[in-house]
Amino acid sequence: xxxxxxxxxxxxxxxxxxxxxxxxxxxxxxxxxxxxxxxxxxxxxxxxxxxxxxxxxxxxxxxxxxxxxxxxxxxxxxxxxxxxxxxxxxxxxxxxxxxxxxxxxxxxxxxxxxxxxxxxxxxxxxxxxxxxxxxxxxxxxxxxxxxxxxxxxxxxxxxxxxxxxxxxxxxxxxxxxxxxxxxxxxxxxxxxxxxxxxxxxxxxxxxxxxxxxxxxxxxxxxxxxxxxxxxxxxxxxxxxxxxxxxxxxxxxxxxxxxxxxxxxxxxxxxxxxxxx
Length: 276
Known about the structure:
Shape: globular
CATH architecture: 6 Propeller
Distance between the termini: 24 Å
CATH class: Mainly Beta
Structural class: mainly beta
Number of domains: 1
Number of strands: 22
Order of helices and strands: EEEEEEEEEEEEEEEEEEEEEE
Radius of gyration: 17 Å
Number of helices: 0
CATH topology: Neuraminidase
């Protein structure tokens, strides 16, 4: 079932003293309740690839544009502690076991799988400036967004303390790493997903406010030459209720696929967003 709607929104770059009216269209498709905690999104052979976050088996789910599951694929040898994201390149799929709600994990990693969903290896990491691992809800060591960027992977943090997102770069090579933030964006949101399109040199991030009442899309053009200039970050309100958007996939500069967990709406969602 698809629901198409068009809303007139206030498009505001919240810290940037600039505000203009924009139109945004969304199409919503129900997807199988079996993937009620969909937390990542990739496209494989014209279909969608997703996963459930913590608590599920180490499974990939492939589903079509109608929300029907086509196959389930076990990633043998992997463990789903808190899978939150997917990224890919021409050779591999990267699984971000990077969820860290309480800031106390010591086993953060990114699994590397081939395009046939065979586990190859892993990238293990820790945050260089973290010395305490006591449970703390408002911490700065949670993350849910992972993107493939040239020869690197970038983690965008979900900083529950400052509502910023820090950028951590990792090589795409197995090993153990201690990572430091290379940059920080003042997004005033909890970032839950991201994607990079190399042909467009475009970054898209999604996130929400603490109340989960407001869902956001962030777009950054010319990312290879991007400096931390807030006026270059476009922030859109996504007009949807009973949702917690967790993943985004770029279609083009104006269109994006997203998925949302089942957040009080009775079903998880595939969402197509078009900005104008």
